[in-house]
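can u do me a favor
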């Protein structure tokens, strides 16, 4: 797939693309009494986050249908984990969502080059507000959509339609970046030029090959 001209905007997912997001690492750091191996941490992550399947507890938190006290109670009831452990885990998430330096550097270069930037992210309200409040580089984004604000989540097609309408963009004239292949696939089905993120350098190369960015955007 290639574009006939450079895109009008680049739309970033946040968790795992712009900000660190690794539930097993978070669990290993917070719950040494519950997980001593990565396999144990991964099993706990699957129990808590349920692979972010639409309709699960966490995705309803992402959607804004559940608030912080409700998600803690639901998780404790469903998993049998102690409420205090869950409370401390959720308290730690904002700090865990640290900026990925290579992506931030790329965003800074894109902004300097005049590229229009937006975001489209599944994010519960407390964490979304923390990111907007704490990270000055987000000023480079002209606009964005958080799932909690619109009551929709990726990979539901509706949130992509909402984003395109809010940004005033034709999906075919912008490119969407996400670390989850399922979200990328849905975006592509809806006419977006979408690329799966592994790291900033790989993603930039893919966008240049796609024709979405001119080659002079690439770092030396």
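np, heres the sequence
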């Amino acid at each position: 797939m290639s574009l006939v001209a450079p895109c009008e905007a680049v739309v970033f997912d946040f968790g795992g693309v712009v900000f660190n997001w690794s539930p097993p690492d978070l669990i290993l750091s917070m719950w040494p009494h519950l997980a001593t191996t990565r396999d144990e941490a991964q099993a706990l992550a699957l129990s808590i986050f349920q692979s972010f399947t639409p309709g699960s507890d966490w995705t309803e938190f992402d959607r804004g249908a559940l608030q912080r006290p409700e998600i803690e109670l639901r998780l404790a009831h469903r998993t049998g984990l102690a409420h205090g452990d869950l409370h401390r885990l959720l308290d730690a998430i904002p700090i865990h969502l640290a900026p990925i330096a290579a992506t931030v550097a790329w965003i800074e270069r894109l902004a300097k080059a005049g590229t229009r930037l937006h975001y489209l992210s599944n994010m519960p309200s407390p964490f979304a507000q923390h990111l907007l409040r704490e990270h000055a580089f987000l000023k480079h984004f002209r606009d964005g959509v958080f799932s909690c604000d619109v009551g929709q989540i990726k990979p539901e097609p509706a949130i992509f339609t909402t984003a395109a309408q809010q940004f005033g963009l034709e999906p075919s004239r912008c490119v969407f970046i996400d670390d989850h292949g399922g979200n990328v696939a849905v975006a592509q089905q809806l006419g977006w030029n979408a690329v799966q993120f592994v790291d900033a350098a790989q993603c930039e190369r893919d966008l240049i090959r796609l024709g979405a960015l001119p080659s002079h955007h690439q770092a030396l």
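The chain has eleven helices and five strands. hope that helps!!
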